[in-house]
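hey
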């Protein structure tokens, strides 16, 4: 009750003490009119200011803004209130209004350096670097010892690629004040941009001498790492680690660096030390198992993988890796046994079953592998779309194409939206000479999934190959490439469409990118040879075709003969 009465009294004092109404407030805020001296009410301004601060601390920004504006009605010249209002408006994203109030502070007190610094920062946030730069230069002209704002100016200049001037400012600061540690990392970055790496290194080291800190040390270590100075980088990382041995992220960084340098035994030691602090010990044990497998230290690898499973019995990734270890040891039966522990519905079941099938096929023959996969397909709980592809692959190897076709059709009835099944079915149809069936299947997929990259690429390439609807083909292939920008085969399709459109220079660019991704693919090399010939680059065309001819595929003798004829014709 006492608190409520106090609040009422305060409001009465405020309302009684303010001689201006809301209309006059709006006029003064919009037009910036100065109040007559007699209307300045410090008590009124202070109380509204307190209400504004309370509202601001309670995260009621709009309410706080209103209170601050009312406080300014009482005292429009109060720099403290204007400063608080400007800061609040900046946090509300109303930077332009904030800048207006800050400019007013400066106009009334030109020597207010903090306000100038704040205004420069506002202009940076408003993407007006020229205005910010001008303010920083004004500050520096007024106070030669304002190193902070000199530093900010150098950062702004560096951001604008004015590295020489940024460097001059930073070097001047450190010449006068060599203990101003904040300047050293920025000077090191400028030196790096200018390619003066020795000076950059010296600047980092001086900065760490003046003021050691893990953040700067980490930046320095990263600089050394990028420069290929692995040993020196590791020394710095380990120096940081001395301050926090439990830093899992830093230990992971050291391990990654050692792996990058192919220093596997050292990486293993780091991982072993990391086991004590790891938040995910199973992942550490798995990584140890993987590295020890690469080192052919099989028994040790198995020990760590068993440790992972002892921590988390459902960690199936460890089981798959164990199967690989057993395979390397020649103990495929043990591998099959551990893979069988990965049950349907659990993580990595599909991968585990595929690996089982492969090991069974290698050890017991294709018939045993076929039996294994058919048993999984017979049970809805263990059935997977990829198992149908695996079975169809076995049948194709035996040239049982009709049976393989039936398997795919059964699979597509169960998984009508599976893009990879449709693609493999289309490839089978091409082998059988059923190109129309293949195209119809992919069109069906596209109707169900209009943005499917497999369908878009297949149909677009087919259109180009047939010289039909080339504009639509180009659209389809580009849409596919937008989703699979690293896929060399999709990029080949784009190159082939452009070739068919007579845009040979553009086609060459895309096909060269495709070959970079898939250097040994015969079709890509053949396409590139065709484009080179159109561009008058006969030697390059012959080289590309020769590479296509030497590739492990095509196995089709007719295709090879066609390539030989191209080569012979180009040589004449």
């Amino acid at each position: 009750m006492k608190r409520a009465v106090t609040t009422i009294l305060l409001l009465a004092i405020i309302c009684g003490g303010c001689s201006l109404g809301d209309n006059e407030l709006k006029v003064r805020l919009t037009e910036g009119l100065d109040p007559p001296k007699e209307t300045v009410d410090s008590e009124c301004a202070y109380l509204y200011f307190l209400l504004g601060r309370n509202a601001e601390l309670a995260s009621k920004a709009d309410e706080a803004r209103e209170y601050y504006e009312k406080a300014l009605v009482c005292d429009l010249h109060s720099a403290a209130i204007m400063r608080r209002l400007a800061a609040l408006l900046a946090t509300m994203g109303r930077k332009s209004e904030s800048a207006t109030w800050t400019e007013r502070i400066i106009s009334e007190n030109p020597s207010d350096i903090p306000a100038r610094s704040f205004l420069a920062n506002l202009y940076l946030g408003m993407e007006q670097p020229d205005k910010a730069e001008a303010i920083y230069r004004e500050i520096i002209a007024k106070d030669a010892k304002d190193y902070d704002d000199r530093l900010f100016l150098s950062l702004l200049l560096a951001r604008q690629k004015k590295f020489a001037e940024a460097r001059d400012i930073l070097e001047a600061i450190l010449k006068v004040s060599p203990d101003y540690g904040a300047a050293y990392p920025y000077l090191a970055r400028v030196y790096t941009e200018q390619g003066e790496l020795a000076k950059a290194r010296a600047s980092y080291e001086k900065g760490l001498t003046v003021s050691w800190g893990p953040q700067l040390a980490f930046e320095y270590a990263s600089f050394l790492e990028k420069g290929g100075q692995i040993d020196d980088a590791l020394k710095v990382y380990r120096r940081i680690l001395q301050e926090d041995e439990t830093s899992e992220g830093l230990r992971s960084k050291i391990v990654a660096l050692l792996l990058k340098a192919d220093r596997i035994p050292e990486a293993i030691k780091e991982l072993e030390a990391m086991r004590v602090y790891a938040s995910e010990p199973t992942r550490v044990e798995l990584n140890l198992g993987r590295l020890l497998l690469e080192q052919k230290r099989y028994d040790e690898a198995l020990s760590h993988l068993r440790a992972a499973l002892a921590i988390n019995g459902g960690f199936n990734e460890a089981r798959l890796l164990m199967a690989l270890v057993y395979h390397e040891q020649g103990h495929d039966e043990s591998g099959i046994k551990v893979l069988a522990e990965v049950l349907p519905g659990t993580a990595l079941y599909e991968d585990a079953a595929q690996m089982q099938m492969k090991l069974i096929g290698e050890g017991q023959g294709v018939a045993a592998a076929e039996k294994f996969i058919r048993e999984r397909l017979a049970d809805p709980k263990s059935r997977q779309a990829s198992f149908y592809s695996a079975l169809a692959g076995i049948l194709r190897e035996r040239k049982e194409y009709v049976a393989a076709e039936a398997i795919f059709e059964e699979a597509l009835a169960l998984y009508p939206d599976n893009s990879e099944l449709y693609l493999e079915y289309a490839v089978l149809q091409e082998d059988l000479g059923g190109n129309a069936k293949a195209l119809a299947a992919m069109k069906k997929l596209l109707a169900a999934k209009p943005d499917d990259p497999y369908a878009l690429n297949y149909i677009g390439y087919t259109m180009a190959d047939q010289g039909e609807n080339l504009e639509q083909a180009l659209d389809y292939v580009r849409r596919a490439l937008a989703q699979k920008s690293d896929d060399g085969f999709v990029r080949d399709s784009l190159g082939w469409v452009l070739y068919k459109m007579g845009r040979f220079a553009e086609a060459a660019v895309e096909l060269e990118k495709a070959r970079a991704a898939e250097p040994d693919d015969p079709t890509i090399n053949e396409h590139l040879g065709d484009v080179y010939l159109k561009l008058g680059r006969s030697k390059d065309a012959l080289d590309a075709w020769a590479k296509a001819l030497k590739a492990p595929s095509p196995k089709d003798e007719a295709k090879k003969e066609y390539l030989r004829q191209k080569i012979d014709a180009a040589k004449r």
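Residues 1-22 have pLDDT under 50 and may be disordered. Residues 280-383 form a domain with the Serine Threonine Protein Phosphatase 5, Tetratricopeptide repeat fold (CATH 1.25.40.10).
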